[in-house]
Amino acid sequence: MPLLNNLPKTSNVISVDELTFYLKDLIEKDPILRNVAVKGEIIEIKRHNSGHVYFSIGSKQSRLSCVMFKSNANYIPLWPQAGDEVIVQGYIGLYPPQGAYQLYARNILPLGKGAQTRAKEELKKRLEKEGLFDPRVKRKLPPYPNKVGVVTSQTGAAVKDVIKVAKKRFPQCRIYVFPTLVQGIEAPQDIVRAMQLAATKELDILLLVRGGGSRDDLTPFDDERVVRSIRACPFPVVTGVGHEIDWTLSDLAADMRAPTPSAAAENVFPDRIELYKQIRHMKARLLSLVLHKCQQVSNLCERQLARLQNILKNLYLHPAGIEIARLTQNLSMNMNKIISSLKERLTHSAASLDALSPLKCLSRGWITCLSKDGETVVSLSQVAVGDEVSLCMIDGRANAEITSIHFKEE
Question: Where would I find the Exonuclease VII large subunit C-terminal domain in this sequence (predicted)?
């Protein structure tokens, strides 16, 4: 065995821990190894009671140990099986107790169609049981949105299509774009981030759209995190991921699904030309209804007036007319009685006056003598011989002259 003194002078003696943690720092601080996506075939997989998942992937000449902690494993459906070809996204780290490096997985994407289909179906069944796809939880879109958010690629054609349709159909609406990745292994997490940011704004509707592509490009929209973020959004979500036939789980969770971004925008933004037509039609209909209502009210007023007149006539005027006729008759009878009584009194008074009338005396031969001045002569002392007097008789007057005066002897 070589002696310690025989070691090269340049060699540094370090402990296993020092070497292990030195290598650990080198690996974990490497920017490339902090975020890698490794393609391989699952060799073995085991889900621990703690919720962590331990598995290995390999290719022709190498093998890589992987671990996915419970916080990330909860978003992976129970589809991974030995033999499935997958892409594992995460970071490379060194596990000191075993002195081995491993891949700490954040996400797993299936590559084979069978595995993809199986993963989607298993996740779909689980989310259906939770009620995330229930039509009863779908929210109605506001007919006239003022603020609309768009979650999509900032450089893709989808955002241009949405803006183009919005300007043509409903230009007064304000559009807010929330950029995100729409494909690749990091897309689901980025979509969730963009939707969470949009949820903090006061929007009426949120569009989740992307342009056309292959079916594999739609994988991020089948991610459980994206599906749950759609249902967690505080306002309605409309999806348009660019495929006529393929439905993603995001489409099932959305409040409305459209085959393309343009179709999604047409469902969200009302057509202003049609709105103008509707307004004109509503105006004409409203005017017609108002005129019809006015005519109805006028007819009703006429009927009520006639009814009121009949009520007044029957309840007040007719009885009052009868009472007035009765009172008039009584008044007439009373007036006739009064007039008769007055006539009798007048006749009696006339007879009395006639009896006391000087003319009555004259009719019996009496004569009234008047002086020249028109004064009644009642005594001889009022006249003298030669005075002219008037003698008033029953049928006229005669002028005479006093020729002599004879006083009555006592």
Answer: 132-310, 313-400
